[in-house]
Amino acid sequence: MKTIIEHIGEVVSKAFEECGYDASYAKITISNRPDLCEYQCNGAMAAAKAYKKAPFMIADEVVEKLSGSSMFEKIESVKPGFININISAGYLADFVNSMSEKEKFGYEPEVTNKTVIVDYGGANAAKPLHVGHLRSAVIGESVKRIQKYAGNNVIGDVHLGDWGLQMGLIIEELRDRKPELPYFDENYTGEYPAEPPFTISELEEIYPTASAKSKDDEAFLARAHEATLKLQSGDKACTAIWHHIMNVSKADLKKNYDNLNVHFDLWKGESDAQPYIPDMVEKMKKDGYAYVSDGALVVDVKEDTDTKEIPPCMILKSDGASLYNTTDLATIMERMRLYHPDEIIYLTDKRQDLYFDQVFRCARKTKLVEPETELKWIGFGTVNGKDGKPFNFFHFMIDLEGGPCVAKRLSGCGSGTEYLAVTPWGDLYPCHQFVGNEKFLMGNVDEGIVREDIRDEFKCCNVYAKEKCRKCFAKFYCSGGCAANSYNFHGNINDAYDVGCELQRKRIECAIMLKVSQMEEEQA
Length: 524
Hints:
Blueprint: H1 4-18, E1 28-30, E2 39-41, H2 43-51, H3 55-66, E3 72-78, E4 82-87, H4 89-100, E5 115-119, H5 134-149, E6 153-157, H6 165-177, H7 200-216, H8 218-232, H9 236-259, H10 270-273, H11 277-286, E7 290-293, E8 296-299, E9 313-316, H12 324-338, E10 343-349, H13 353-365, E11 374-380, H14 406-410, E12 421-422, E13 427-429, E14 443-444, E15 448-449, H15 452-459, H16 467-470, H17 475-478, H18 483-490, H19 498-523
Parallel strand pairs: 5-6, 5-10, 10-11
Antiparallel strand pairs: 1-2, 2-4, 3-4, 7-8, 8-9, 12-13, 13-14, 14-15
Helix pairs in contact: 1-3, 2-3, 6-7, 6-8, 7-8, 8-9, 12-13
């Protein structure tokens, strides 16, 4: 089934031809000024030189030819020669109704029954999911479902981070806490316990504690490195602990992903790629692709057409240790051998652009994939702070000694005062959730804030202005909640969104409980 833009193109192409101009000039694009129109055609600008005619004259002729069409709510010529187009509601309704009558709503894939692996989720063993994981999970699940809808054989792989230093940190922190466990008895020869020596709550607390300790305790960090090496070398005790970590982590991750309606076909991780690394490295050396540079093993991936410098892809560090590059390349080798995919799609945030460029080039150059195999990376955006740098996401933590920043908490979320939402066409709103609601249009970038009464209203939106907040024990930790949610559910920014309040209170209760438990253990 043809798209709307293709239908518009056919109609406009015919008008160009009837006016004596080549139909190739009738290219339709989505408007880059949605405040002016929905679609646009700039072909008159290009045609002007060929036909030695002012572009607005060509645009005027085409628009006149189309002025009676029921397809358009508005079609107009704008100097120096643009054609602005809005589709009529009646045409759009007919188009959507026609889609509903067709199989798969008129979708006609060019190729079906491809085998596609989608690598998404980004979870790490022994670490709980946080809000930063939502983007990869939700976007990746959407990509997977679209691929299935297109008729392809799709395999979703969570590709867990399960083989790095965090494992050594956990093992050594567990040794410090429970030295009596048989895993730490060098003379123990029996079978290790089937039951894990920790719960998911304990495991999620062990890792951040160990990570923080390693930053100040060099001896502890050295022990963690040694434990990691022992694990990767097949040490029986470390491997047993690793299996416990994986079993407990996977059970919790599956539960959380199920709640998000995100489902994976494979629960493989970095550890699954390890057996492929020796053969892969040896092949790269034997085929002449890999060479030693400053002690490290690398593969050149730069190309003659590059307009910027592309560094070599490092395969092994100077001490012989593997890297993310090594594991990801070995994973590609594993996937090609086990699943023979036609396409592999990766989803991460946009900061990994160069990384995947290097890995994909290396995979192709060293012939880890077939020439026709597609390697695709989909990068999504980051949530940035005022300094332009991406936020690091942390779980809800509470400081029972220093307490919250009272001045900030009293001032609310800051919408309408500390920050504004700016639309592409320059309108100003208190925050993005109010965009389009004319009641909250504060001004524009040309004139500035013209509705100071709105700013004053938001300035007074704080925990003391909200009746429900005054009686709530959590008010100094939550800033009074989201003004947009309060307005959308109650019609008043000084009300409180009840569902959000319950969730926030529960999070704070749990955070305080964990903090108190930690303090009791430290004092014991």
